Amino acid sequence: MEHLPLFIKIKHRPCLVVGGGKVAARKARVLLARGARLTLVAPKLCPELVALQSQFIWQNDVFEEHYLDEQFLVVAATDNKEVNARVYQAANLRGLLVNKADDSKRSAVIFPSIVERFPLQVAFSTGGDAPWLARLLRARLDALLPKHWGDLSRVAGKLRAKVQGAFATSDERRRFWARAEDDVTLNHLLAQGKIAEAERWLKQSIAKPQLGEVILVGAGPGDPDLLTIKALNELQKAEVVLYDQLVSPEIMALIRPEAELIAVGKKAGHHSVPQEQINQLLVDQALTGKRVVRLKGGDPFMFGRGAEELETLKEAGIAYQVVPGITAAAGATAYAGIPLTHRDHAQSAVFITGHSKQDGKEPNWASLAQSRQTLVIYMGLMRSAHIQQRLIENGLASSTPVALIERGTTPQQRVVRGTLSELGVLAEQVVSPSLMVIGEVAALADSLAWFKPQGSTEAAQAVAQEQYA
């Protein structure tokens, strides 16, 4: 990297823009918005600059070196490369900060892409290599950052000393601000522009006891791009994260680096940490006053024992939230090209777990063996032969299409297809985590599949075509 990202106070500083077109107008707007004392040299102004003319000094002239006298920052933004080069060379010889609009590689200063919630600013650059990528990132961040965060920043600035006096450690202060940013009342006041009320609310909150909280977060089926925005926000505010084996490494990498990670290791076939111990860990961590995230694969309320954990927290009087995640039945089937419902094939979808109930009771196989419905079975590999037998015994045709989706939505995704009569044998060909889909819609995977995981013939051909194109 050749450029050092800096925020420079430009207010009241003399700045020069050479050029009168759209590029010059774009640079001028950025400088004027930050209070620069701007001079613009150009024999003609575009309509955008004409509209701004009262805010800068216009020298109706071609560039001469004396216009560089006493300037702090210079921008060469004409449509003539030779003129831009002359401006750059003259400014560079004087040791001035200079931006050459048509040559960011040689510029001492680059104008970054900016997402602004005054006084909050997020600025970034690709060093001139990929301006389109910077624009794309700007659009994404602009959509992600709440519009009222500028007001939140101003209010936080006013109360910064008060918060530092009330909380002795940086962890306590970070915890306070994380909860404030998350509070529905405060966000509502700021969104409505009620700044004074928001400031009073924050002052009152400083005096309240700082209690621990648990956030139950669904990590989705594996693809980190399927993580919800709220889930990402919680991972980046967490102080402690209790996570399951099914959470992908890519999602784990998004957790705040300073957070304490506790593996509770639940996966098909064994639990390295008993559920009762997980429940107690959540309580113990929250009682220390920390912000605790319980991170689960898929959705916390879909065969994830999330309700059991919340019941324990409620009994202990600990505050909690739930952040839903995309469950495997929705995510893995979509990536495999299998619709859960289809007007011609399935009017309903039923989700069940393949694990036996502790009391030994079997599900209602007669209701599950209905035609024109989709049966999605979680954690069913170990009982696949039994599932096959019971469904056929209760009237579901042995020729019914089935699909086993291994590691759905990840680059390692694999789909094994066949019929119900082959289910037990097919299950031996896949590993956990896998999802079982039984019904006519499973036959659509061949025609509707769109996702190209690593190792697939189609993916390899696509890579080869890109390399030799």
Automatic annotation (TrEMBL):
Domain Sirohaem synthase dimerisation: 148-205
Residues annotated for S-adenosyl-L-methionine binding in this entry: 221, 297-299, 327-328, 379, 408
Keyword Transmembrane helix annotated: no
Pathway: Porphyrin-containing compound metabolism; siroheme biosynthesis; precorrin-2 from uroporphyrinogen III: step 1/1; Porphyrin-containing compound metabolism; siroheme biosynthesis; sirohydrochlorin from precorrin-2: step 1/1; Cofactor biosynthesis; adenosylcobalamin biosynthesis; sirohydrochlorin from precorrin-2: step 1/1; Cofactor biosynthesis; adenosylcobalamin biosynthesis; precorrin-2 from uroporphyrinogen III: step 1/1
Chain residue ranges for the region called Uroporphyrinogen-III C-methyltransferase: 212-469
Binding site for NAD(+): 22-23, 43-44
UniProt KW NAD keyword: yes
InterPro entries: 4pyrrol_Mease, 4pyrrol_Methylase_sf, 4pyrrole_Mease_sub1, 4pyrrole_Mease_sub2, CobA/CysG_C, NAD(P)-bd_dom_sf, Siro_Cobalamin_biosynth, Sirohaem_synt_dimer_dom_sf
Name of this protein: Siroheme synthase
GO molecular function: NAD binding; precorrin-2 dehydrogenase activity; sirohydrochlorin ferrochelatase activity; uroporphyrin-III C-methyltransferase activity
Domain Tetrapyrrole methylase: from-to ranges: 214-423
Assigned keywords, A-Z: Cobalamin biosynthesis, Lyase, Methyltransferase, Multifunctional enzyme, NAD, Oxidoreductase, Phosphoprotein, Porphyrin biosynthesis, S-adenosyl-L-methionine, Transferase
NCBIfam families assigned: cobA_cysG_Cterm (TIGR01469), cysG_Nterm (TIGR01470), PRK06136.1 (NF004790), PRK10637.1 (NF007922)
Domain Siroheme synthase central intervals: 117-143
Catalytic reaction annotation: uroporphyrinogen III + 2 S-adenosyl-L-methionine = precorrin-2 + 2 S-adenosyl-L-homocysteine + H(+); siroheme + 2 H(+) = sirohydrochlorin + Fe(2+); precorrin-2 + NAD(+) = sirohydrochlorin + NADH + 2 H(+)
